[in-house]
Specification:
Two copies of one chain form a homodimer. A two-stranded antiparallel ribbon of chain A has the order 1-2. Among the domains of chain A are: 85 residues, no CATH class; 192 residues, Helix Hairpins (Orthogonal Bundle), CATH 1.10.287.70. Chain A is mainly α. Chain A is globular, with a radius of gyration of 29 Å. Chain A contains twelve helices and two strands. Chains A, B: Pfam families: Ion_trans_2. Chains A, B: It is found in: Cell membrane.
C-alpha cells in the first residue's frame, strides 16, 4: 500500500484538491457529450428540417391530387394507407424484397441483433418472438461484445508486431548505412526488444483509422455496385452499419434478386463482420484518446485553481508502507505496478513535457520522479483505468509534466508476442 | 521475464500444447456465436415466418379489394404507394407524429446516434447530413463508449462498497450474537479490509441483472402508460433500446401530443440513459462470465487431449529469469504480477477445485502453486486479459484446478475506495 502525504497548507485549504478525480472525469465527459449533442442537434436540424417540410408538402399534394383525379373517398384511401403502414412493418414494399423470415433472412436478422446493429428491416411481430428476443439478445450481445474485445486484442497484437518489425528494419538500414564495420551486431539493444517497446496511442489510432477507411472504401465499392447506391451513400451506409447504429433507412442485401446472389450475401456478411469489428476497435482506441484529453483538461483545471494561486506543487514525499512479509503478496495480488519504485528525485533527469508518445505508467512514474517539483499520489492498483488515475493525479499536481497514457492492450500484445 | 520449461517428451509431441491460447479462444467464441446464430435463426424463422406470409396475403387482398371497389388503375395506386414509402422514410404517418427535425427531434436523433441505438425513426435524407453524420458519429460514439466504461467503473465501485458494507454488518451481527464479551474489537481482521476483498463476478452479475430488470420494469410501466403499449411489448422496447439494438419498430416519444409532454420527454431521456448504461454494464460483466466459460472449455479440451492421454502434467519447473538490476524496472513496467512468486509447491495445501468464487490471478497462482501436479507458464503482463491468459494456461495444464477469474474493475473499485 502506498500513501501520499501532502505537505503544504495551501493545498489542504483548496476545494479543488478534494474533488474525486473519477467523478470529476465522468461529469466532465457528461457535459462534453451534452454540449456535443446540442451542437449536433443544431446542425442536423438546420440541414434536415427544410427537406422534412418539403416532404410533408409534397406528400399532401400527391395525396390530394390522387383523391381529386380518381374520386376516391379520402377515408377509404387513408384506411388503405394505414394497412400499408402495417404491411411495410412486415417487410412488404412495392418493389419486391427478399423474404424477412426465411432461414437466411432470420439469420441476417439474428446477426443484426447480436451485433446490436438492429437495422429494423425485420423485427419480431409476434409476442413470443419479442419475449424470445429479450433472452436471446442478452446472451448474444454479451458474446459479441466479448468477440469485439478479443478482436481488438488481436489487432493491437498485430499492430505492435508489425510496427516493431518496421522499426527493427529501419534501425538495421540506418546501421548498415553508417558502415560501422566494427560493430557487427546489428540487433537492437536490449531496451528495444518487443516486450519493452509499444507503439503510441496516436500511432495505433492512425493505423486503425486507415484500416477502417480502407474497409469502408472497399465495402462502399461493393455496395454501390450491387445496390445501385451512390458511392457517398454507400459510405454513409457503411458507417451506420459498422458503428452498429443501424438506422435501417438503407440495408444491404434486401433486393429479391442479385447477380451472383450467394457470393454477394457471403461478401456482405464478411464485410459487415470485418467492418463492425474494426470500427469497434477504432472507437475503443479513440475513447482512450478522449480520456487523455479529459485528464489533460482536469489537470489544467486543478493546476490553475489550486497550484498556481497557492503554490502547493512544491515538496513531495512518497511513503511506501510495505510490510516485509506482505511484499510478495502485495506485489502479486495488487500487482503493485509502482509500489517498489522508491521516491527518488534525480535532478539531472529532464522532464518530458507535453509528450505525445505513449509510455507505460511506470515509465511515466520515472518521468514524474525525474521532474523537479511535483506531488505523487499513488493508488494501489495495476489496471488500465487506475493507471490513468495515477497519471491524472500526477499531471494534476505536476504543473509542467504531462504524463503520457498507458495502453493496456499494447502491453498485452507484446506479452503475447513474447509467448509465441 | 518468466519462462516455463516443459519437462516430458509426451507434452512436446502433443499438437494441442502448441496452440496459441488467444487464437484458440477467439475461434472457439466464433464457432459458439455462429452456432448460437443458427439456433436463433431457426427459432425466429419458425416463430415469425407464418405471420409474414399472413401479412403478405392480407395486404394483397386489401389492395385488390380497394382497386376493385374504387375502380382505380392499379398503376396509379402503386405509384401513390411508392410516394408514401418515401413519405414514411421522411417520418410521415397517417396518425400525426411529432416533427423529426425540429431542435428537440434532432436532439433525440443525435442521442440515438451517439448511443448507437439508431432507431431510424429519423435518418438524414440530405447528402450533407449523411456526410456530417459520419464525422459527427465517429467522435460521438467513441465518447459515449468511454462514458459507458466510466459508468461501469462507478457501478462496480458502488457494488463493491455496498457489498463490503453488508459483509461487515453481517460479521458484526454474528460476533454480537456470540456474546464474546472478551473480544471487544468487532472490527474485521486485516485481510478483510475493502482493498483486499472483492465481490465475485457472479455476485456482481446478479446485482447488475437485478438493477437492469428493475430499470426495465420501471421504464416499461412508464411506456405502457404513455404510449398505449402492452406491458410485455414495453419490456421488449426497453430491451431493444437499452441494448442499443434499436430496431425502430417501436419508438418512444413519437406521438404528436402527450399529457405532461415535457415531463414525459425528460423521463424518457433519463430512462434511456440509465437503461443503456446499466445494460452495457451487464453485457460487459456477462462477457467476462462467457470468457470464463470459454477458458474452462479450452482447459478441458487441452487436458483431455494432451494431459490425460500422455500424462504430461507431472513435474513442473518455474524458472524466474530476473536480472538483478532489472528487478524494479520489470516489476514496475511489466508489473510482473506474479514474477516474484517463486515456484514453491507446498504439498500440505489443498487444491481449490471448481471454485465459483472470483479471486485475483495471484490468489489463483497461489492456488495453482498449492496444487500437487500441474505445469506453470507465466506471461509477463499485468492486464486483465493476460491475467486470464495466465489463468488459462494454469487451468489448461492443471487437470484438477479450475482457477478462478479476476475482475479488473473490482480491483480498481477497491483502489478508488482506498483513495477516498
Amino acid at each position: 500500500m502506498v500513501q501520499s502525504h501532502h505537505f503544504g497548507r495551501a493545498r489542504k485549504s483548496c476545494i479543488w484538491s478534494h474533488i474525486n478525480i473519477d467523478f470529476a472525469r465522468i461529469f466532465l465527459l457528461w457535459f462534453v457529450i451534452v454540449f456535443y449533442a446540442l451542437f449536433g442537434a443544431a446542425v442536423f436540424s438546420a440541414l434536415e428540417r427544410p427537406l422534412e417540410l418539403e416532404a410533408h408538402c409534397r406528400w399532401n399534394r400527391q395525396l390530394a391530387e390522387f383523391v381529386q383525379d380518381h374520386q376516391v373517398p379520402s377515408e377509404d384511401l387513408l384506411e388503405l394507407l394505414r394497412h400499408y403502414e402495417k404491411a411495410i412493418a412486415a417487410g412488404i414494399r412495392i418493389e419486391a424484397r427478399r423474404p424477412r423470415w426465411d432461414f437466411s433472412g432470420a439469420f441476417y436478422f439474428v446477426a443484426t441483433v447480436a451485433s446490436t446493429i438492429g437495422f429494423g428491416m425485420a423485427a419480431p411481430a409476434t409476442l413470443n418472438g419479442k419475449i424470445f428476443l429479450i433472452f436471446y439478445g442478452l446472451i448474444g450481445c454479451a458474446a459479441t461484445i466479448l468477440f469485439f474485445n478479443l478482436f481488438l486484442e488481436r489487432v493491437i497484437t498485430l499492430i505492435t508486431f508489425l510496427t516493431h518489425r518496421c522499426r527493427k528494419q529501419k534501425q538495421k538500414t540506418r546501421l548498415s548505412k553508417r558502415h560501422i564495420a566494427t560493430n557487427m551486431n546489428t540487433q537492437p539493444e536490449h531496451g528495444d526488444s518487443q516486450e519493452d517497446w509499444k507503439p503510441s496511442d496516436y500511432y495505433v489510432t492512425l493505423i486503425l483509422a486507415t484500416v477502417v477507411l480502407l474497409v469502408n472504401c472497399g465495402a462502399s465499392g461493393l455496395y454501390s455496385a450491387m445496390e445501385d447506391w451512390r458511392y457517398l451513400e454507400s459510405m454513409y451506409f457503411c458507417f451506420v452499419a459498422f458503428s452498429t447504429i443501424g438506422f435501417g433507412d438503407m440495408v444491404s442485401g434486401q433486393k429479391a434478386h442479385y447477380e451472383a446472389h450467394w457470393v454477394y450475401q457471403i461478401a456482405n456478411s464478411l464485410m459487415i463482420i470485418l467492418g463492425v469489428s474494426c470500427t469497434y476497435s477504432l472507437f475503443s482506441i479513440t475513447a482512450i484518446i478522449i480520456k487523455q484529453m479529459l485528464n489533460w483538461i482536469l489537470a489544467k483545471l486543478l493546476s490553475l485553481h489550486c497550484c498556481r494561486s497557492q503554490g502547493c506543487c512544491s515538496i513531495t514525499t512518497l511513503k511506501v508502507k510495505e510490510p516485509a512479509n506482505q511484499q510478495i503478496r502485495n506485489t502479486s495480488n495488487h500487482s503493485g505496478t509502482c509500489h517498489v519504485v522508491k521516491a527518488s528525485l534525480p535532478s539531472e533527469s529532464k522532464c518530458k513535457c507535453a509528450s505525445t508518445a505513449v509510455e507505460t505508467v511506470c515509465q511515466s512514474l520515472d518521468t514524474a520522479n525525474s521532474c523537479p517539483s511535483f506531488e505523487l499520489e499513488i493508488r494501489d492498483s495495476y489496471k488500465l483505468s487506475k493507471d490513468d488515475a495515477e497519471k491524472e493525479v500526477f499531471s494534476a499536481v505536476s504543473k509542467n509534466c504531462h504524463l503520457s497514457h498507458h495502453l493496456s492492450v499494447q502491453e498485452e500484445a507484446s506479452a503475447a508476442r513474447h509467448k509465441h
